[in-house]
Amino acid sequence: MTQTDSRVTHLPTGSYYTPSGEYDDLYRRSMEDPEGFWAEQAESLDWFKPWEKVLDWQAPYARWFVGGKLNLSYQCLDRHVQTEVKNKVAFYWEGELGETQVLTYNEMYRLTNNYAAALKRLGVKRGDKVALYLPMIPALPVFMLACARLGAIFTVVFSAFSGQALADRVEDVGAKVIITSSGMHRRGKILPLKENAVEAAVKCPCVEKIVVVKHTGHHTEMDPDRDVWLDDILAGVDEYVAPEAMDANDPLFVLYTSGSTGKPKGILHGTAGYALWIAKTLQWAFNPDQKSVFWCTADIGWITGHSYVVFAPLELGLTSVMYEGAPDFPAIDRWWQLIAKYGVTIFYTSPTAIRMFMRHGEEWPAKYDLSSLKSLGSVGEPINPEAWLWYYRNIGHERISISDTWWQTETGGFMISPTPGIQPHPLKPGSATKPMPGVDVAVLDPDGKELPNGQTGFIVIRKPWPGMLLDIYQNQELYQQTYWSRFPGYYLPGDFCMKDQDNFLWLLGRADEVIKVAGHRISTAELESSIVGHSAVAEAAACSRPDEVKGEAIILFVTLRKGTDPSPEIKAELTRHLRATIGALATPEEIFFVNLLPKTRSGKIMRRLLKAVATGATVGDTSTLDDGASIDEARAAFEELK
Ligand code: ATP
Ligand code: MG
């Protein structure tokens, strides 16, 4: 891991460094007395009935705050409307076409009650399942809150999924109602969501009703027995719906993972532990205050949107920005324009977005006043140091910290991240730094022995934490096998990690994507970081192919920055660059130039597809692939060479 470590010397770490402060104390307490620690933290929630037991841990099932009763919509709304937060802005919403809406806490409260009343009239009650297939419009968080209020279990399906992908999820959860909109705007086009919802309803006998939010103006056929307009069921009533007293461990939602490594898994999250975990981790990682304007760019269809667009900011009474459209519509500066317009103070996005902006050049953000920003964040994939530095310089202007947050759908909220809300760590581009309080991390070798600092292995979490998933929905066997069978008693995220000499953690991609070359293990993240460090490269994906001599041979798929065209010279140059930055073992067998890398719809590179192309295997589940053309392109590049 010399390459990763050597980058550290470039770093602007000094100004953030406060040695041995509060973080160490808080972390130590969370490890020495987890139950005492979490009992204290849980005072920040409003309980209808206090818990009897902080933790019931019967591995691999953790149940937090047993006996306690609460409601997440109450945490997010009711308790704020009793204070001065009532008239504060909860969301500044902007549509792709430029239309805007400003929603205060009081308006969110009123809408949530009315939507809950409407759902109740449709027969939705506690324990029922509801599928939400909506674009990034205010109705989506409102329906999530309304479901939470009624105790109905919701599953949000990302709006860019097809009717079939929706049907798979609707059927798996057994949804009684699908809530959708007439359509959505994307890069100037209208996508027909309602038609996809009908396709799913026809395929899934569990579906009784489709509720349609009027969003785009186009015509949609309504089945009088099955389909209702939201406006009609709201029917002018203003109603209070008492929040259900939910059990601390009652299920809140099912959310399907991104499908980067295989078929998406239906992750089941609970109420109290999840609510506490996301609020605390947002506070710790981003240090918001009551004047913050928070913008998490994730779609609500992913866990990042659930936890950090909807629930955690509302629990903390923050103001958020929510944007419906594409980052490059009408032009690549749309996001920077929005930051300047709303005075965003905390901006949280993904490496894939940052690399896209890098590809287009720093002149775009340079046109805007980004001085309102106080904190930046990244999530979704390892952020390579080059992208980190670009973000730090061109968006943060070298004056604010970046919280690289490592976590998963399964973890509910951040697990490893800088914690300026407790005490700022020094930063190292590409490292997610330290675990959150309560997160007991170790790096193990394949036999389960803890590795010394500097060596790469499997990251495991040795203690349950409040945001931990309850289960995989209706699949306990898969739950136990995926996360708990390899190292019994420890949660296995499936990522590779290295703890450096300063105890900083480097997340290095999927453990099953590690490449073994001539007896050496090299992570895809390390190879990609190195090659993206070359000024001609915008993005890269590494994978491998079996090789008789070396065990595995490295294959790279590369997209170039504007201004460089593929050529044998650039290929040779990139090979030299890899050898110089990592070593001879990083010599790729082949470099393919493509325009697009295959990604999940949440923006993660799907290396397993590239590997399938490079080895001539079948590609497997592609239901979450963003753009089918990208895999065809890789295949064509590969065929051409043969
Ligand atoms: P599936 O589980 O279906 O393969 P997925 O793991 O991509 O899909 P998510 O839960 O959305 O679905 O993603 C979690 C994964 O994303 C992590 O396991 C990790 O590999 C990666 N990840 C997220 N944030 C970071 C980060 N800050 N640094 C490195 N990797 C990250
Ligand atoms: Mg995963």
Automatic annotation (TrEMBL):
Family assignment from sequence similarity: Belongs to the ATP-dependent AMP-binding enzyme family.
Acetyl-coenzyme A synthetase N-terminal domain residues: 23-76
Gene: acs
Gene Ontology terms, MF aspect: acetate-CoA ligase activity
This enzyme's EC code(s): 6.2.1.1
Pfam families associated with the record: ACAS_N (PF16177), AMP-binding (PF00501), AMP-binding_C (PF13193)
UniProt name for this protein: Acetate--CoA ligase
AMP-binding enzyme C-terminal domain mapped to chain residues: 526-604
Keywords: Acetylation, ATP-binding, Ligase, Membrane, Nucleotide-binding, Transmembrane, Transmembrane helix
UniProt KW Nucleotide-binding keyword: yes
Class of enzymatic activity (EC top level): ligase
Residues annotated as transmembrane: 130-161
Top-level taxon of the source organism: Bacteria
Residues annotated as signal peptide: none
Chain ranges of the AMP-dependent synthetase/ligase domain: 80-465
Lineage: Bacteria, Bacillati, Chloroflexota, Dehalococcoidia, Dehalococcoidales
InterPro entries membership: Ac_CoA_lig (IPR011904), ACAS_N (IPR032387), AMP-bd_C (IPR025110), AMP-bd_C_sf (IPR045851), AMP-binding_CS (IPR020845), AMP-dep_synth/lig_dom (IPR000873), ANL_N_sf (IPR042099)
